[in-house]
Amino acid sequence: MAVSWTEQTRAMHEEIERLERAAAEDLEGNEEKTHWKRLKQEHRVGWCLDRVVERSEQLLEAYEDVDGIRKEERRSMAGETTQTPFISFYGKLRDIRETHKRIAGAFAHEAEVKPLQTPDVSFSGEEKNGRYLDLNELHVRYVNAKFGKEIDYVTYLKNVGEFSHVETTHKMDKSYRDYLEDLVRYLKSFHRRAKPLVHLDKLLEQQRESFEKDWENRGEEIWMGGSEERKKVEAVAKALLEPFGSCAELQALGTEQLKEMLSKLGLKCGGTLEQRAERLFSVKDKDMNEWDPRIFAKNARPLASKNKELLERQKKLMHETARLEWTVAALINTLHDFVESTCENVEKKQALTAEELEEELRDDEENEDQEIESDEEERIYNPLKLPLGWDGKPIPFWLYKLHGLNQEFKCEICGNQSYWGRRAYEQHFSESRHLHGLQSLGIPNSKEFFEITKIKEAQELWESLKRKKASEGWKPEAEEECEDEEGNVYSKKTYIDLKRQGLI
């Protein structure tokens, strides 16, 4: 028997009711106390809601009755399509009875809700079951890329959504767009795994509409640099070329110096020494719009180029890059709590010794299925940014003041490293970082250099010690001693005088 339209819609309504009941019972009957169990519960409920949305969309399409199946079936049930409606009715009734007889016991009389199955969700070791972000690979790519900077992991996490420092020429590179695409892909994946009940697509759609509106209003000014970028490059060119009056003077700088100057202006760096000098000298005292487009490096041509086709292509690339940057910023804003938690976790790990890290790893492996109680899982309120104690919580403020941890000591010898508290400051004079700094300056580590943190002061003290040591050198006439036959000890000068006088 073919399944009718009415039976199909009835089955979908029944499935929606079953899913709603299952989600409600899961939420009401199981008050999960641990983070991992709560996350699993959210994934179960999220799966139910996604299924409900899917079935609801199918029901809406069915009720629209685009192909007219619903209307035709209603006419058939009313007997309008045949002259013998009772024969048709009893024929359908016979088919229904035969079908239920053939599959007897397949339908329960009471709709029982089966336990929901938890969807397969996996996290990396650094993510700790959805607590922290794992951006280590992207951090390495950022540090080693042309558009990146050499910063530590914590600084990268705090500024992962900031792109104002990236130059326009680098934003046109494919490597930069690939980096943004991978970053967006990871953040989306983590959001869906860590916050399954939040409708991410709807949030991104709202952000996309806001971005398109902002792009239309002032996209070239904000995202493409506009005249400000050109003025900046022209100012650099003027500062570099003002001292030179001819190509010959530029050639005297050498190939490496010319290459560095060409790179600063976004020009091609290849060719012989004469070609580089001519290329660089050709832009002197000219507006950027008057520069020859052929001398620009790849993806470094100005956006105000006279080539309209090239300009449109650059605008398209910049629009795509700006959209990715906007998406990353929106995702980071949504995951702000996770970013802060990750920074705190990384800083905590950096403060642990190797033995403590190994012990923490063993504890994590032993208690993989056991989580801390919900009150310990809540985000720690630490507005004063107090250091974390052995239990992962901020130390008391009185203890913070007692140890003087609010006092910052900087050591120029250690590379302007900051030490908080007198104890940490005094201990660092015997640590490897400070010893290496003194060794790099050619100064031995001795008690005289304790409390010396300035490079100039250390060098002056070392020169003073060397002069003092030189002035206190060996003086034979004053320090050499002689002994007479009776065992009396005299200085050499006194001994010679007495000997001459015949007194000894």
What keyword list fits this structure?
23 helices; mainly alpha; 504 residues; two-stranded antiparallel sheet; single chain; elongated
Q: Indicate the low-confidence ranges by residue numbers.
A: 107-113, 372-379
Strand composition percent: under 5%
Oligomerization state? single chain
General shape: elongated
Helix content: 55-70%
Q: Kindly name the structural category.
A: mainly alpha
Main sheet: strand order: 1-2
Q: CA-to-CA gap between the ends?
A: 142 Å
* Biggest sheet architecture: 2 strands, antiparallel
Q: Averaging pLDDT over every residue, what do you get?
A: 78
- Helix segment tally: 23
* Rg calc: 39 Å
